Amino acid sequence: MGLYDDKRRRTHTPEGYELLTLESGHIEYNFDWHLGYYWSKFLAEMRDNKRFMATKCPQCGTIYMLPRQVCGKCYVEMNDWVEVGPEGTLEGFTIVRFPYVDPNNGGMKEVPFTSIWVKLDGADTRLMHYSNEHDEKDLDVGMRMRAVWAENRTGSIHDVQYFEVIR
Amino acid sequence: MGKRVGIIGVGQTHHAAKRLDASGVELISEAVTRALDDAQLTIKDIDAVVIGNMDHFENINYVDMWAIDGLGAFMKPVFKVTTGGTTGTTVGACGYYHAASGLFDVVLAVGWEKNSESDTQAAIATCANPTLERDPFAGAIGPLATEYSMYMKAYGATEEDSAIVAARDRNNALNNPYAHSRQAVTVEDVLNSPMLSYPVKFLDMCPRSDGSCAVIFASEEKARKLCPRPAWVHASVVRHDYTHFGDLEWTFMPTLERASAAAYKVAGITDPLNEFDVAELYIPCATCGVKWMDSLWFCDHGGAPDLIRKGTFHMDGQLPINPSGGVISTNPIGATGLIRIGEGAWQIMGKAGDRQVPGVEKALCTGFGGCSWSDVMILGADLP
Amino acid sequence: MEKVAIIGVGQTKYERDKKETFAELVFEATSKALEDAGISKDDVDNIVSVSSDFWDGRTISSMAISDASNAYGKDITTVEGDGTFGVLYGMMRILSGSFGVTIVCAHHKGTESNMRGITNCAFDPLVERKLGIDAISSAALQARRYMNRYGVHEEQLALVSVKNHKNAMRNPLALLPMDISVEDVMNSRKIADPLKLLDCSPVTDGACTLVLAAEREAKRLSTSKKRVWLKGTGHCSDAFRLGDRDLSDTRALKDAAKRAYTMAGISDPRKEIAVAEVYDAFSHMELMWLEGLGFCEDGAAGEQMERGVFNSDGKLPVNPSGGRLSSHPVQVAGLAAMAECALQLRGEAEDRQLEDPQTALVHGINGMCGQSHCVWILGK
């Protein structure tokens, strides 16, 4: 075989052995990620008080939803918490129609699902979440949205089921 | 800028959806042997090696250790760098810094991926914060699709503009024997292809590929001795500013603006649209090929559709983009960014075969990945 | 060679099950390093993050710590391997003339993940992985080979563990400070023959950050007391498959060490190195690496250990911090080793301080059974 031979169509070796593929089968790696001070508080507030808590930078004043310890621009720790929302403006959305493997459980993700970026009132950055609308005709950037909370909240991003359009 | 470094050889595999005939190590070896051949060197001439890919795609830990045989790194200095989608350009920058530091004279930089070995979207989805962002994360396409929907609303860009870019890159690939996807398409074909994630359609989007690319960097003295026309590195700038997807600006791309502005300054470029002769850009989705033109300072915000519709970036246009077919035609993720650098280098060296743009003196290469991260490398035929 | 210096050091405490996130750990270590260096975040112009997608459970592992590492608006890259390789890249970036001050930060939360599964993934899927081999079982194979070849006894391995855990008692950051005896080590639970529990390093969480500066910047921003110069470095990798090499052969380390010694102008390491931090992921490894570094003949380290040569009050103190046997956050470990040597050379090592050391050696490994090595010589 020459150095620049195109071997893309080959299915067998030159002597005729079939080219094999080794299948790993189902593999699971479990992780126990710690949420730290900021996200533990954020999720607890969602679970217990149905509200969105953001952090505010003492230097530049940016209000971050999702909250986090460090303002990247100023490199300072943020300890001021501000409630934002409960409503917000739809800044971007996409309706995913192709299924792919969900890394959480190895099954296929259910489609269609609508991923949105919503700027909650008072926040300077956007929250990624879901919308219950699955048709492009029914969503437009600029629409007003409100959170629809789950009955059974456990301290997870799913404590908000989705955002609905305020019509 | 520091010590001067030139690219003296490039090698690529024949990229495909699935390379049944080669294990990852063999794929790497294919690119490495071709790069050595291109530079007329043997593995003994290599002083150091750097490699990169995205771990989760093949589920192999410590790839720099695993691939030693195919990499030619046995009893040599080697380590790994990885930054997601920008891995290829990160590897290129690393190869450059190895040689520019003065510690090593001839450096082999390799990027590779066997995307066929796993579920690409699932692996990419793990980049998002597992608790707060992984679930609503709409795969690699999600943020890209969303930002274009906002760009369309703000500036009147259309789905057809994106289709023009897709058709351009895909048709260019017909001249590239290494490209994964080589099909003649019309703008109509793209518009009629199935919708993946509004407004991105199937033919707008890059494939996932098996492939590898190897680029050999050499310090100035060695480069002059070993190569008749090296592609000199004029600038290498990286801006990976964001951690959370919700923090991004959407109507323009701040990281690309900042990275390219800084790179142009270092390289002395003031009028990029006119001064570059060719650009190999990391455009994973044709919609980006519209929107990101603004962020490269080719025009004002919102000016891209006009340039696209005029054919400015076609092979016979003012600034050909992606003569290789780009990412939309070939995407082995760990190699993709490095392929941009390799193709840019070949354009300068005059080795780009049927896809050669005549008289290339300056090339622009970019990388993209992660949370709207941008890498820029500028290559030139003249010494910086 | 142009000079590059370490001007700042920051570390978190090394513990099990730390509750902070990766970003919070990196922020802690990086803030401490900036404060130690006495510089502001704007004096830094680039970042080298050392992290692993596998250990973090997320791809693009450096994305999680981008804000926390002061990367906004700056050039950043990620090395996936031990911290010593991160410092190497950080130094190269400075020597290229493109940057003046580099932050090298590493993070690791071993207790959040599955160490055995993750190190099993370092082996080839076709054969070795299916054997269920991982970091510990492969190290055990190497230990047995080394012991057979040179007639080294388990008790000599145990001396390493005794020494390092004892050293850790004077390191407030270490995870496992312990006052143990050879008998304690010999009686500890057998993990993989011949390695027992106390021959193995612990799964650990932590982060470490170093600030590197070009000579010009180091002189402008730092004081001579704080500056520690990177005098020499070398790295080299052996073959991958365990069967392709003699696991007791330290040829890659010898190659890396030679490069480092040559660069630093060291001809007799035994005499010229005052203190060393080597990568003792397992007790037998410290013995092997000391030989490969030229501190004694091949096979003789056990004997030298018996004579107390490498104790804190010996001729060549090794792992005064307690070594990896006392704290082993993977990736971070090499940076932590370098931090210890920097502190020693500065005279800031508190209860562990050795008497006026001028030259130190730092050693890191990558891959299983020490396939790849990175050696550093630090000087005042």
UniProtKB/TrEMBL annotation, chain B:
Record GO terms (molecular function) = acyltransferase activity, transferring groups other than amino-acyl groups
Q: Where is the Thiolase N-terminal domain?
A: 19-180
Q: Name one Pfam family in it.
A: Thiolase_C_1
The protein's matches in SUPFAM superfamilies, at most eight in alphabetical order, are given as:
Thiolase-like
The record's annotation in InterPro entries points to: Thiolase (IPR002155), Thiolase-like (IPR016039), Thiolase_C_2 (IPR055140), Thiolase_N (IPR020616)
* Superkingdom classification of source: Bacteria
Q: What UniProt keywords apply to this chain's record, in alphabetical order?
A: Acyltransferase, Transferase
Asked whether the UniProt record includes Transferase among its keywords, one would answer yes
Q: Which Gene3D superfamilies match?
A: 3.40.47.10
Q: Which residues cross the membrane?
A: none
Locate the Thiolase C-terminal domain: which residues? 249-379
Q: What is this protein called?
A: Propanoyl-CoA acyltransferase
TrEMBL record, chain C:
Q: Which residues form the Thiolase C-terminal domain?
A: 245-380
**What domain of life does the native source organism fall in?**
Bacteria
A GO term, aspect molecular function: acyltransferase activity, transferring groups other than amino-acyl groups
Keyword Methyltransferase attached: no
Where in the numbering of this chain does the Thiolase N-terminal domain appear? 4-215
Q: Which keywords has UniProt assigned to this entry?
A: Acyltransferase, Transferase
The protein's matches in InterPro entries, at most eight in alphabetical order, are given as: Thiolase (IPR002155), Thiolase-like (IPR016039), Thiolase_C_2 (IPR055140), Thiolase_N (IPR020616)
Q: What is this protein called?
A: Propanoyl-CoA acyltransferase
What is the protein's species of origin? Candidatus Solincola sediminis
